[in-house]
Amino acid sequence: MSDLIAGMPRLIQAGMGVQVSCARLANATARLGALGVVSGVGLRHIVVEQVRAGDEIAISLAQTFPIKRYVEDLLSYARGGSRFHLEPPMDLPDPVRGALARRLSVIGAYVEVLRAKSGHRGRVGVNVMWKCALTVLPTIYGAMLGGVDALLCGAGVPMELPDIVTNLRAGNAVEYEALTGTGTHVLLEAPGDEGAALLARHPAPHMIPILSNFAFPKRILDIWNRDMEGARPFAFVLENHRAGGHNAPPRNRVSFGDPDEIDAYFDKVLAMGVPVYVAGALDEGGSRNDYLRWLARGAYGVQIGSRFALCRESGMRDDLKQQVVDRNHTKETTVLTDNVLSPTGYPFKVVPLEGTLADPTVYEARKRICNRAYLVTSTWDTRPDGTRRERYICPAMPEKQYRTLGGDVADLTGRVCLCNALLSTAGLYTDVEPPIITLGESGTHADKMLSAREIVEDILTPEVVAEQEKALAIA
After folding, report:
1. pLDDT of residue 419
2. What is the pLDDT of residues 63-73, one digit of tens each?
3. pLDDT exceeds 90 at position 472
4. Alpha helix (H) ranges present in 263-317?
5. In the Cβ-directed half-sphere of 273, how many Cα atoms lie within 13 Å?
6. Is the separation of the CB atoms in 207 and 234 below 8 Å?
7. Beta bridge pairs of residue 337
8. How many percent of the chain have pLDDT more than 90?
9. What is the pTM of this model?
10. How many CB atoms lie within 10 A of CB 199?
11. Residue 125 and residue 113: Cα distance in Å, rounded?
12. Is there a contact between 101 and 135 (Cβ–Cβ < 8 Å)?
């Protein structure tokens, strides 16, 4: 059980956004022998606000970025900079006007990954949310420049992932009319020879799709092998509908049942010959027993999120963590699956907590706003001269704006701007949108706030952690 493949840990600390899986948490878990994962969602805003607040670590790490223009862009938001009083930019369809947002997303991912990797030799990954399509390419590029060890891609099917990695490492521009399952046109300027040389300093990251059935792992293996020069994932994370955040829709499109449980397809995926991590199906909330049970079944390891979301080092606001932990202690916490809340159309796990957007009175009192644009999709119309125009649309935006873009008003009911709500959960822009809390069902087991170390030791044992910490220390 102790033999690792390519040195990759058996325990993954999940990448939860926005900033719940922050660099502080990933650093704490990676140095103890887990795969510490940062969330790639919203890093353009998060790192800009760190720099604006005078965060010396963020500024010093940004100054190591190897392309000067990106450094100048980010540091222009520091005190005394030309953009100190400006909001971070939104992604825009125009390639030129949208270039600043893409550059900030690149350097934001670089800073976050470097921060997670500082001071140890452990493994660090980045979670790339496929439905946040406009930041997929910049996040992957910036994370790779920071030497990220693994790309974990969920909330969609990362069919293009090997092509993205290969082209970026070759210095090529990357563009897709729409990333698989997103409906969103994406592009990233060519890194060129300079970018290729910089990426050549690091090994290519391990590719780990996060999926919820048998069909998509099979399809990925078939298509990657046929169309992408025989590329193979390092592993699959199989995540069932009890996990937090976004869930894959139920197989019957109505309600979750036995076909959606990992037991229904685990053995078939395992037989494909790709290592498997299990997530979500953790009966004891992500305990050592859960870990050992899945290893005995043949899994390579487990991915655990909710325990870490409620630990001291996570980026969730402390007051919100404490409220959930207190309710867990008295067995009052419930975790609901909301089928319409997310603009993506995917089911979304939410904890109904007073004062958050899960509170109907709070939801009704809010003002709809769309000023971050991480979950928008492309919509196209034709100008009188016959040229096509791309615009962005999201069912969480204000009604008038959505109708003007051709959206159906019926799509607006019950939607939440997850961009702003989850940023608020991390303590950013709290005056714009109330927070929202997402946890997996296993999160109800966390009845006291532990440190990341206590959780990792509980799963792997203190003896194993002590051995790994010593091996991963920088002399």
Report:
1. 96
2. 999 999 999 99
3. yes
4. 266-270, 288-297, 306-309
5. 2
6. yes
7. 349
8. 93
9. 0.96
10. 20
11. 8
12. no
